[in-house]
Amino acid sequence: MSEGVSRAPRDELLVHIPSLRAFAVSLSGQLDRADDLVQETLVKAWRNLGSFTEGTNMRAWLFTILRNVYISEIRRRRREVQDTDGVFSENVAVAPQQNGHMDLEDFRKALTALPEEQREALILIGAAEFSYEEAAEISGCAVGTVKSRVNRARTALARRLNLEVGEIGIEPALKAALGPAVGSGTG
Amino acid sequence: MTQRKPENKLDPDVQAHIGRQLRAGYVDILNQPVPDRFLELLAELDTREGEAERTSDELRQNGSR
């Protein structure tokens, strides 16, 4: 690795590709579509490197580009879909199994079924670990809006995954099952 | 549609569970190696840039980076 001079743009972008892919997959729910989003993002970023202010957060800058690429793709698809009187398959409500076994696949489906702006907010805060201020900038909205979107997203996920808490609290069995949930999937 | 409570309070365990699931899916992709298509893309952009710079220097005086 060379030091001293600022890193070549190529290296700079390269560093953020894993984050961009993770963001794109979380947003779109599909790996191949996600990689197309990342590709378009990289091309756009490359063309606009001059507008990136050095010393600021490049990851946030790239996420903003990817997010905008994604939104325009959604809009384009929506128009196409309306023409054919179809529906977004990814927006079809998910009916989760009532068996208490919540693996990542169920979670992924529930996440994909969220309204776009809620999913985006939740991913930026809960997965990409941006601050609320950064997330607000990326999404082009107010900080309070991000907070309320994240809250609504969490509530909606809990409902879809049958984790909603009644007045008496969640069942002890469910509560116990939640503990070691991550990594307990049977592949 | 459904009755809406003014304050949606999630059980902390449920919230933590959602957080872990969310992060798990994300980190899974984060830890994957960068696919070749992106390495090739960046190399291609780099090459094109070099060519474009030479061309644009001749075509216009643009000092912006």
Automatic annotation (TrEMBL), chain A:
<dbReference type="GO" id="GO:0003677">
    <property type="term" value="F:DNA binding"/>
</dbReference>
<protein>
    <recommendedName>
        <fullName>RNA polymerase sigma factor</fullName>
    </recommendedName>
</protein>
<keyword id="KW-0731">Sigma factor</keyword>
<dbReference type="InterPro" id="IPR013249">
    <property type="entry name" value="RNA_pol_sigma70_r4_t2"/>
</dbReference>
<keyword id="KW-0804">Transcription</keyword>
<dbReference type="GO" id="GO:0006352">
    <property type="term" value="P:DNA-templated transcription initiation"/>
</dbReference>
<keyword id="KW-0805">Transcription regulation</keyword>
<keyword id="KW-0238">DNA-binding</keyword>
<dbReference type="GO" id="GO:0016987">
    <property type="term" value="F:sigma factor activity"/>
</dbReference>
<feature type="domain" description="RNA polymerase sigma factor 70 region 4 type 2">
    <location>
        <begin position="105"/>
        <end position="157"/>
    </location>
</feature>
<dbReference type="InterPro" id="IPR036388">
    <property type="entry name" value="WH-like_DNA-bd_sf"/>
</dbReference>
<dbReference type="InterPro" id="IPR007627">
    <property type="entry name" value="RNA_pol_sigma70_r2"/>
</dbReference>
<comment type="similarity">
    <text>Belongs to the sigma-70 factor family. ECF subfamily.</text>
</comment>
<dbReference type="InterPro" id="IPR014284">
    <property type="entry name" value="RNA_pol_sigma-70_dom"/>
</dbReference>
<dbReference type="InterPro" id="IPR039425">
    <property type="entry name" value="RNA_pol_sigma-70-like"/>
</dbReference>
<dbReference type="InterPro" id="IPR000838">
    <property type="entry name" value="RNA_pol_sigma70_ECF_CS"/>
</dbReference>
<dbReference type="InterPro" id="IPR013325">
    <property type="entry name" value="RNA_pol_sigma_r2"/>
</dbReference>
<feature type="domain" description="RNA polymerase sigma-70 region 2">
    <location>
        <begin position="16"/>
        <end position="79"/>
    </location>
</feature>
<dbReference type="Pfam" id="PF08281">
    <property type="entry name" value="Sigma70_r4_2"/>
</dbReference>
<dbReference type="InterPro" id="IPR013324">
    <property type="entry name" value="RNA_pol_sigma_r3/r4-like"/>
</dbReference>
<dbReference type="Pfam" id="PF04542">
    <property type="entry name" value="Sigma70_r2"/>
</dbReference>
